From TrEMBL:
This is Nicotinamide-nucleotide adenylyltransferase, NadR type. Residues 14-173 form the NadR/Ttd14 AAA domain. Keywords: Nucleotidyltransferase, Transferase. It comes from the Bacteria. One of its GO terms (molecular function) is nucleotidyltransferase activity. The lineage of its organism: Bacteria, Pseudomonadati, Bacteroidota, Flavobacteriia, Flavobacteriales. It comes from Bizionia paragorgiae. Pfam families: AAA_28. Transmembrane segments: none annotated.
């Protein structure tokens, strides 16, 4: 059912780490959750696709996108009930939409697209490619990092999402993110 892809209503501040693979999203998600004494939503696609790789030796296929989206939102809705003022999301459905379009010649399942655009977040942190590439079973585009970054940024612009680009070392990124989240908590944020 389509409700499986929809966020539950919540008053918490929702933050998304967004961007190409191997750009520090998970590291920063954990750091922010620790800083705000809250929970974070892991990227369901990694768990799902690692199991698929281990069991079948296969990578992501178009038929996997909806189960991934469903699992991501289920995790997000579950964690939102446990969050302390702020929920840190290691990804969202808009990121899944971008990957689907990149890998499948512009195709995105209409259900995924609908909820990628309808689900809302308070701020996106777009992680830049100035982190070292870490190879694993699932990552496959080290030579296309800048192009992928530009694709992710264009998606945020096209869909009018409020975002901040995070660059630099872990400490710099963390301090920048905290500064912006603190403004949201204080309701002092003015988007340009």
């Amino acid at each position: 059912m389509e409700k499986d892809y929809k966020q539950r209503a919540s008053d918490i501040i929702k933050v998304v780490l967004f961007g190409p693979e191997s750009t520090g999203k998970t590291t920063l998600s954990k750091q922010l959750a620790t800083h705000y004494n809250t929970v974070w939503v892991q990227e369901y696609a990694r768990e799902y696709l690692q199991k698929k790789w281990d069991a079948e030796g296969k990578i992501c296929e178009p038929k996997d996108m909806l189960p991934i989206a469903k699992g991501q939102i289920a995790n997000e809705n579950r964690q939102a009930q446990l969050a302390n003022k702020v929920l840190i999301c290691d990804t969202d459905l808009l990121e899944s939409k971008v990957y689907s379009e990149v890998y499948y010649s512009g195709y995105c399942d209409p259900i995924l697209e609908k909820y990628a655009l309808e689900n809302t977040y308070d701020i996106y942190f777009l992680t830049y490619i100035d982190t070292p590439w870490e190879n694993d079973d699932l990552r496959d585009k080290p030579e296309e990092r800048l192009a992928m970054f530009n694709t992710f940024e264009q998606a945020l612009k096209t869909h009018n999402r409020h975002y901040v680009v995070l660059k630099g070392d872990e400490t710099t990124r963390l301090q920048t993110a905290i500064k912006h989240i603190d403004k949201l908590i204080a309701r002092e944020y003015e988007f340009f």
